[in-house]
């Protein structure tokens, strides 16, 4: 005699499990705010953003942001509207920090979960410490390890900033110091 509810009872039959849809979140990255051109040695602000076009929520959303050919010593700060940002300078000690200053200028941000339609921005300030005539390339990439992204082609963005020579007797050197951690909003 079969139990009430059939052989499977309240447990879905294997074929019913195969028919369930896998959650998906279409993350996207952009750099809508950033300098179109700049003077070598000046302070620059970029505002990369990460959003979720749905249909489902995305957990543990990450933003990787880099400005080439700058080094980590060019970073001044990163201010996310939510979450935290860090560079290798947050994890080094002693002389290892001197080595880290010469590494590529990149920052990793942990932005938390994003609901469909939600956007998080990060304001990143750097010193344009490359020579005049150089073009800086800012790159942003969004990811989440927990939910598949059905539209991976929009997870990255880039923005170019050509550097000009400072005018004689002018220009902003950007000051001293180096980026060590994100500042909460």
Structural write-up:
The protein is mainly β and 185 residues long. It is 6% helix and 46% strand. The protein is built from 2 helices and 10 strands, in the order αββββββαββββ. It has helices at residues 14-18, 95-101, and strands spanning 25-33, 38-39, 43-55, 58-71, 75-80, 84-86, 104-114, 119-127, 135-143, 156-164. It has a 6-stranded mixed β-sheet with strand order 2-10-9-4-7-6, with no helix packed on it. The chain is globular, with a radius of gyration of 22 Å. The termini are far apart. Mean pLDDT is 83; it is low at 171-185.
Features:
single chain, mainly beta, six-stranded mixed sheet, 6% helix, globular
Q: Could you give the topology of this structure?
A:
Layout: H1 14-18, E1 25-33, E2 38-39, E3 43-55, E4 58-71, E5 75-80, E6 84-86, H2 95-101, E7 104-114, E8 119-127, E9 135-143, E10 156-164
Parallel strand pairs: 2-10
Antiparallel strand pairs: 1-3, 3-8, 4-7, 4-9, 5-8, 6-7, 9-10
Report the sheet with the most strands, covering strand number, pairing sense and barrel closure. Answer: 6 strands, mixed
Residues in β-strands, percent: over 45%
| Topology pattern, helix = H, strand = E | HEEEEEEHEEEE
Helicity range: under 10%
> In DSSP terms, counting alpha (H) and pi (I) runs of 4 or more, how many helices?
2
Unreliable sequence segments: 171-185
**Class by helix and strand content?**
mainly beta
Multimeric state: single chain
Shape: globular
Q: Tally of extended strands?
A: 10
Q: For the largest beta sheet, what order do the strands appear in spatially?
A: 2-10-9-4-7-6
Distance between the termini: 65 Å
User: What value does the average pLDDT take?
Assistant: 83
Give Rg in angstroms.
22 Å
